[in-house]
Input
Amino acid sequence: SGSGSNSLMWFRKGLRIHDNPALEYAARGSGCLYPVFVIDPHYMEPDPNAFSPGSSLAGLNRIRFLLESLVDLDLSLRRLGSRLLVMRGEPGEIISRCLKEWDIKKLCFEFDTDPYYRALDVRVKNFASADGIEIFCPVSHTLFNPADIIQKNGGKVPLTYQSFLKLAGDPTWVASPLSLGLSSLPPIGDVGCCQITDVPTVNELGYDDLDEDGQTPFKGGETQALARLQISLADKEWVAKFKKPKGDPSAFLKPATTVLSPYLKFGCLSSRHFYQSLQNIYRTVKKHTSPPVSLVGQLLWRDFFYTASFGTPNFDFMRGNLICKQIPWDDNNELLVAWRDAKTGFPWIDAIMTQLRKWGWMHHLARHCVACFLTRGDLFIHWEKGRHVFDRLLIDGDWSINNGNWLWLSCSSFFYQYHRIYSPISFGKKYDPEGKFIRHFLPVLKAMPKQYIYEPWTAPLSVQIKANCIIGKDYPKPVVSHDVASKECRRKMGEAYALNQKLSSQVSDQDLQNLR
Ligand code: FAD
Output
């Protein structure tokens, strides 16, 4: 690479200074360095699948989290003698224009597996290499390069966690220390006629910042991420004993897991740094849990879904997705809206959906409960619809992980024990018999006595009156009877599975004939 020439660092995810190989490479030997983030209107566009007019692909909470992360990144870059150049528009066009305008010789950005970026990156790479620009595009969002794992498996995607672990082994980068800081950055050159702005506010992007649903308690940015990591790992015993299915999904004052997911999603926190910090703790304790239940195990789940999604065409659809069971889901908009808007009449489900809307984050088992309820548990609605609602409202909404888990929870792929259905009544009660979680997120049920809090429709009218909550008026009646609906769901899943079995055996008969 030409020493003293200009480089462009294109931030997308990876909104951090620590462990950022693309940024480091861009800085090395460059005369000028242009750190760019493009605000992509794609995510603010009206959502064709949304019910309420004006709602966008990404909800207010996630956009706010992103903008906070950008402000933090800008501050960090300024401390290193640089700043973040924010632009707005179609990223492919903007980056191509900047490359020309600034006479860039080196273009650096983190490798991204999301289909949206894979398509975009092909365009940008073609454009840049036609101009003889050097491209550096390292894998640093995940612990492993999904392509390497698939190659090690003879070109096939590993579809179980155990086979993934075997193929993965230890990450190659663990042998050399990660770079956790930079001391300075080359200056920014003349920006010419490119339109540079400060980080916009949510208002400037067309969101209503007073919307009471958009007030997540979690703030974006690398500074927050590293502080949160430190707090999460301060109690070494807790880390050593971490067992995923054991946590309390109803804990909201102090969540039972780290809540690092939104920081990992945007790359405010490096998953490799997280992994290494965990290994350092494991070395100092006598005993620790292991994958799949340990904290390192959680990070490996993340890589597992990144790998599966990378190697599976149409991963985010049922149709044309070879690893997805074909199930004749019902098309019932009324029930879908009830689920989305926290009006199913099951307080445990509605409280979780309210937490999703208000916080953009829920505990893993809480996500299990509402995803199972929507699909194979009670409502028999397509997982793609639920995935879509999650994708818009989660602050950690992540293409690979979200789709992977919806495939899992709907028993469409990875997990097939469709007989095991979460009860929307008794599951939460085990953790939170008083119903504190429900009372917090559904204040309308605040005064409901605890023996009725999970099934308020069973409370005598006198109790409802005293609790100031008439079922069917102040809070909905249940949209289904769980006993009837779950039985029906099991039956339909059984039928669909049998049909899938038949179809796949027909396919293989045909394949055999083709071979003959
Ligand atoms: P911790 O338990 O502290 O785990 C640490 C990290 O490990 C997480 O931040 C996450 O990056 C990773 N991780 C944990 N569980 C999983 C998992 N099951 N699969 C993959 N990675 C995991 N997670 C997302 O990050 N984005 C999503 O869009 C998303 N959608 C989901 C949809 C459904 C239907 C379900 C059931 C789960 C989904 N998850 C998603 C996975 C999981 O629920 C969250 O990652 C986790 O609850 C985040 O909280 P945490 O950071 O405290 O997790």
Q: What stands out?
A: Residues 110 and 140 are 6 Å apart (CA to CA). The first helix runs from residue 21 to 27. DSSP finds 20 helices and five strands in the chain.
